[in-house]
Amino acid sequence: MRLVWLWVMLLILASECYGCLEHERVALLQLKAYSIKHSNVLPMWVEAWEGETTTDCCKWERVKCNATTGRVIQLSLNSAENYHYSYSRDWYLNASMFLPFEELESLDLSCNGLAGWLENEGFERLGELTSLTSLNLSYNNLEGTIHINDLKGLNNVEQLDISYNQLDGFITHSGFERLSVLGKLELLRLDGNSFNNSILPYLGVLSSLKTLSLAANPLNESIDIGEFCNMNLKELDLSDNFIEDIKDGGDLKRKLIFAGFERLSVLGQLELLRLDWNSFNNSILPSLGVLSSLKTLSLHGNLLNGSIDIGEFCNMNNLKVLDLSENSIEDIKDGGDLKRKLIFAGFERLSVLGKLELLRLDWNSVNNSILPSLGVLSSLKTLSLSENRLNGSIDIGENPTCEENLFRRRFQMRRSLYLQIVDAVKACDNFFVQKKAGLGRLGLSTLQKVTSAFRMLAYGMAADSTDEYIRIGESTTILCIKKFCRAIVDIFGKKYLRSPNSNDIASLFKKGEKRGLPGMLGSLDCIHCSWKNCPTAWAGQYSGRGGSPTIILEAVASHDLWIWRA
Questions:
Q1: Alpha-carbon dihedral 47, 53, 54, 56, rounded to 10 degrees
Q2: Per the confidence metrics, is the pTM higher than 0.90?
Q3: How far is CA 393 from the centre of its chain?
Q4: Fewest beta carbons less than 10 Å away: which of 58, 80, 421, 444?
Q5: Which domain does 417 fall in, by range?
Q6: Per-residue model confidence (pLDDT) at position 135
Q7: Chain CA centroid to CA 10, Å
Q8: What 8-state DSSP symbol labels residue 98?
Q9: Domain check: are 414 and 478 in the same one?
């Protein structure tokens, strides 16, 4: 039995003398020699393998092996750093050289200046790699058309990137129906080629596709999106084309009442849509409103102008990123039907955009009048208004846009009381007065400083968390809350931080007796606050039914919420 095990171990050692399979190591060296012989400029991966003829190929740069079998599963043979050099146009690759890598899952040949394959040694040979799921041929010199029959072996490929080549179409005898051989494809990038509108009707058979990118192609005028009826896309990029409109010109089963995306349920799962740098005008907006799953919409660099109607986005309640930069927008209004008609113009009370976190309106023509309309976007974290027509003094919050009930919920008090405290604190401590810096720029406003203190006291927020909402750093916030608390004690201490006198006690007894509770000063309540840093020796006596140490805070308050003891 021992001899059998010894024989098995010798076989394993003999087959993996360098840590990886010998025939795969030899195939890598042959690939290197072929590249040196046929390419004008040595790819970076060739230079990385200098002096690697007798070492474990699994440890070579740009090579990844299966930790169990030692088989090569990933080859990253991209040469991005040398891409800008002049490649020889007769740099053709023999795809058969990859066949020894039987378990290869990912192959990256981008940025190598490849002009194509040797005859009968192209895609059809790569199709024999049944484990291949990712193929990247972007940024090469591939040109002309691709025959669909050559792709039939790539039926397990999930990611295919042939962007930024010089391809202009596919060849097939029966339309693009045979493209269904790529039935598992989830990502397809065709950017930077020469595909025109005729490619769109034939992509619809890719029912597993989740990401499609056709950026930087000559798509133009009105494109027919109706052919995507069988697709479950989540990301679609049509940027940097010449598109003017989107319509549905399909058969009667897909014929819609409205043009464009209107009621186009085939894109009901779309989460990202990029339409940058096209020729869309305001008429595109109503057509996008049905994309209820959309989270990112970019219309950067189009022909939107004047006053745009944002009310058509009534169903886009999941939108988080909206880019309308580099247009000619002057104002934002809601001109929808009666159900969407709002009292205020623009974004005012536009709850459909309640989840919006990023809004870009750079390089437009909006002026100061748009600012009040943006105040209701309570989830907004990034707002960009650079290169517009804002001028003079802008109001960043002296007139709060929150309604009274919303203000009370957020600040735990009425707006009138809040402003009364702001004015009192400002008069008490010069720190809260807005001043000009050395360069003449205005510093932090009174509202910013007081609000940062309120947010920490009302919600227990950390000092550095106010930076996103109020734009104040951690150290300044800590200073604000210290000075705020001192100012409150100085201003209101004598009136509110005192023991009840004889008149107060008589008044409380009278009110208690009137309510059927004679002799009552007030209501006693307490709260258990967790004591994280309680000394171990004291933990037992401070632990209650919860099992962890707590400190009890109690207060006695009268019916008018006046705290008499705490």
A1: 60
A2: no
A3: 33
A4: 80
A5: 404-496
A6: 93
A7: 53
A8: G
A9: yes
pLDDT at site 54: 62
Domain end, chosen from 395, 413, 435, is at: 395
Mapped onto helix, strand or coil, the DSSP state of residue 47 is helix
User: What is the predicted pLDDT for the residue at 337?
Assistant: 47
Cα distance between residue 105 and residue 93, in whole Å: 19
Contact call for residues 41 and 87 (beta carbons, < 8 A): yes
DSSP 103-132: T--EEE--SS---EE-TT-SHHHHTT-TT-
Looking at 471, 496, 521, the residue that finishes a domain is 496
Which amino acid appears at position 364 of this protein?
N
CB contact set of 8 (below 8 Å; sequence gap of 6+) = none
User: How confident is the chain (566 residues) per 10-residue block, as mean pLDDT?
Assistant: 49 51 86 74 60 73 88 85 49 87 92 83 82 91 80 84 87 56 86 88 81 92 75 90 76 41 62 92 83 90 86 80 92 56 41 79 88 75 87 62 69 81 88 79 82 82 76 86 90 81 82 82 82 86 82 80 72
DSSP, residue by residue, 386-436: -SS---S---SSSS--S-HHHHHHHHSS-HHHHHHHHHHHHHH-GGGS--B
CA 223 to chain centre: 27
Burial class (CB in 10 A: 0-12, 13-18, 19+), 18: middle
What is the distance of C-alpha 43 from the center of its chain? Answer: 34
Q: What is the pLDDT of residue 7?
A: 47
Q: Provide the CA 23 distance to its chain's centre, in angstroms.
A: 44
Residue 181 inside a domain? The answer is no
Residue with token string 């869309």: 280
Q: Which residues of 540-557 are buried (b: 16+ CB within 10 A; e: fewer)?
A: eeeeeeeeebbeeeeebb
Domain count, the chain: 3
Which DSSP string do the residues of 278-337 spell out, in sequence order? S---GGGHHHHTT-TT--EEE-TTS--EEEEEGGGGTT-TT--EEE--SSEEEEEE----
Q: What is the DSSP string of 196-238?
A: -GGGGGGSTT-TT--EEE--SS--EEEEE-GGGTT---SEEE-
The whole-number pLDDT of residue 368 equals 84
Crossing angle (nearest 10°) for helices 446-459 and 474-496: 80
Name the token pair of 391. Answer: 């001028």
In a domain, 166, yes or no: no
Those residues with Cβ within 8 angstroms of residue 14's Cβ, 6 or more apart along the chain or in another chain: none
Residues 366 and 468 occupy one common structural domain: no
Taking the C-alpha atoms of residue 60 and residue 309, their distance in angstroms, rounded to an integer, is 57
- The residue assigned the tokens 């709850």 is 351
For residues 422 and 471, the answer to whether their CB atoms sit within 8 Å is no
C-beta atoms surrounding 319 within 10 Å: 24
Q: How far apart are the first and last CA of the chain?
A: 83
